[in-house]
Amino acid sequence: MPRRLLTPVLAIAAVLALGAGCADDVSPGVRVGDAKISVDDVLDEVAEWTGNEATSFYQEPGGEAPVTYPMEAVDALVQQRIELELHNQQFEALELRLDDTLREQALQLLFQGDLSIAEQALGGFSDGYAASYVDDIARQIAVQTTLGDAAYAEWRAEALGGDDIEVNPRFGSWSSDTQTVVGPEGPRDPVQPSPGGELLTPEGQ
To answer: What does the pLDDT average to over 36-60?
Structure first.
């Protein structure tokens, strides 16, 4: 039986049914409203996914140094982080509370009801990231359940289509029209973190 992989939950509304130029070094990796996520934090999250063999972005260890990350993986994970941050902010605005019931629902969603693989899949992440990721998905569930399908779809479209989202040009850009991350123009070279954390590309941008 093929091993199922943990993939990013980019558009929870589609799968959830609960009945209701170069930037300078100080620029954030992603800005969502007042929240700023550093370049290092973006790369740390990419490293979590590419280093976990239970995910669809896993990279076999080895190869030439320094480590590089496929641009497609970076785009998808930046997109996911934007989605998660928007939901986290709405969760706070709605004054919702996180509990174990929501976490259980998140695990059910992530693993399509087969919790026998949850421990192994999440075990490939660091403990802190695994816990925070499950909590992020739990908050998404709470937001959709509280708003209801119609209001949720309206809120999400407005949030993703607004002008409060920015992506560091090193990762690409945010298109409010398509509501997606658009990779950098030109050849889609892999993203390459330097030992000091500064983002490098083959062109040295």
So the answer is: 92
Question: What element of type H or E holds 37?
Answer: strand 35-37
125 is a domain residue? yes
Residue pair 49/55 in contact by the 8 Å Cβ criterion = yes
In terms of residue numbers, what domain contains 183?
A: 12-200
**3-state SS, one letter per residue, for 141-197:** HHHHHHHCHHHHHHHHHHHHHCCCEEECCCCCEEECCCCEEECCCCCCCCEEECCCC
Number of independent structural domains in the chain: 1
Q: Is residue 7 part of a domain?
A: no
> Which residue is it, tokens 């260890």?
61
SS3 39: helix
Amino acid (one-letter) located at 65: A
Least confident range from 43-57, 79-93, 180-194: namely: 180-194
Task: Determine the 3-state secondary structure of 102 from DSSP.
Answer: helix
Flag whether 205 is in a domain.
no
Kindly report the pTM of this predicted structure.
0.80
